[in-house]
Amino acid sequence: MKNLPLHTKIIIGLVLGLCVGLLSVSIGLDSYWIVNFIKPIGTIFVNLLKMIAVPLVLASLIVGVASLNDVSKLSRIGGKTIGIYILTTAFATTLGLVMANVMRPGDRLPEQTKNNLLQLYKVNNENNSKEAAKIRNQSPLQPLVDMVPENITAAAADNRLMLQVVFFAVLMGIALIQIDPKKSSVVIQFFDGLNDAIIKIVEYAMALAPYGVFALISSLIVEIAGKDPYQALALLYALLWYGATVLIGLVLMIVVVYHALLKMFSKISFMAFLKGIRPVQLLAFSTSSSNATLPLTMECAEKNLGVSEEVSSFVLPLGATVNMDGTALYQSVAAVFIAQALGMELTIYQQLMIVLTATLASIGSAGVPGAGMVMLVIVLESINVPTAGIALIVGIDRILDMCRTVVNVTGDLIVSVVIAEGEGEFNKQKNLKKVL
Ligand code: ASP
Question: Is residue 238, in this structure, part of any structural domain at all?
Fold first, then answer.
């Protein structure tokens, strides 16, 4: 068991959790043991994820923005790259939103199961509609006002105010670029070290994931189903729809969106591109980490696609930290799914909020396993959907993480080709020889 890769352990945790939950429901066991002795492990796991969110955003964004120092050197490439990254990510978020609204995975749950979930997560729909009414009456510029914190420590103390933390981190990063490098380097080094330490803590949390997933899934089934196995099956059915919604969205992102971008901005054929990046996609799938895949991503871009080193060494490391189209798409589907499963209708304002926060949350996600799920907390908090709802999706998250990471690295590579082509930094000779 010790030597098994983490994702296998998580899948074992998922399957065992399902078996224990279903078995206990079908033989009518009292839920006391599972709720009081197994569920707390799952709660600890989710709390760990929430605990990391603020410091992770703060450190990774400050370091990310401050390291854009090279942008002055590479200002044209820098501006273009960041522009395309933000556009593709916002597109991915919107595609996720459309998919979730068309396929409506949360509606696969029967009313009774939704009501049980509502009680379980103590959702107060009255409060939500009051909140929605308040939003309708406010100035259209209120979201902008809400982004600027009055007090940064108060903002950092509340996961719901994450956008304010993002705002502060970006300003701080820009300011660090503009002050005396002798002074700023100490601060940047501090946040860089903090960032590494937080990523280590994410690793610890992920080591607990197999047990957390086991605990969350078994207790979820027992609590939802009571003594009625039909409800447990209904929940699994809805989860399958949710997984399928994310997967179809991810496939569309590669087959339609990236294909179109390549066609519009590059002469390289889509098939040749896919063939050249196959090793990168396989590594991303098996590690669930854009960061871990980065060295291979750069090598394949240069050797197999013919992107110049100058472009790849700027575009790809930046992409591995900030460009996560797969994660953004997943976050919007997950947020809508959880809301649907709790019977909460999202207003247009809330859906726009998802586009904004999922885009920012994916930029703030580190390229390590599970980071996207940590950042989902921000998206849920911003639309007033209980973060406890993450328990619903955590069971199949690792499998989706593997798939969304493939899209994340593919997106980075597409942008590197587009930029290289636009800058005349594309070695077609090499590309033709190696790939076609
Ligand atoms: N694992 C993803 C990546 O490294 C991030 C995420 O959790 O969505 O790209």
Answer: yes
160-174, 338-352, 394-408: least confident range? 160-174
Ligand 1 nearest-atom number relative to CA 291 = 4
CATH number, domain containing residue 273: 1.10.3860.10
CB of 288 within 6 A of ligand 1: the answer is yes
Output phi, psi for 307, to 5 deg.
-75, 135
Q: Is the CB of 405 under 6 A from ligand 1?
A: yes
User: d(Cα 236, Cα 317) in Å, to the nearest integer?
Assistant: 38
Q: How far apart are CA 183 and CA 242, in angstroms?
A: 49
SS3 of 426, please? strand
Q: Could you write out the DSSP letters of every residue in 156-191?
A: HT-GGGHHHHHHHHHHHHHHHHHS-HHHHHHHHHHH
Residue 307 β-bridge partners = 426
Pocket test for ligand 1, best of 283, 291, 327 (most atoms within 8 A of CB): 327
Q: Which domain range does residue 342 map to? A: 6-435
Q: How far is CA 232 from the centre of its chain?
A: 27
Cα–Cα distance list, 300 to 53, 177, 312, 410, 413 (Å) = 32, 31, 10, 11, 9
Query: How is residue 354 written in tokens?
Result: 């998802």
Per-residue pLDDT band for 100 (boundaries 50, 70, 90) equals: very high
pLDDT exceeds 50 at position 432: no
Q: Is the pLDDT of residue 88 over 60?
A: yes
Does any domain span residue 150? Answer: yes
Q: How far is CA 286 from CA 7, 152, 279, in A?
A: 8, 39, 11
pLDDT tens for 182-200 read 999 999 999 999 988 988 8
The encoded tokens of residue 118 equal: 């509502």
What's the rounded mean pLDDT across residues 333-351? 91
Residues 6+ positions from 260 with CB-CB distance below 8 Å: none
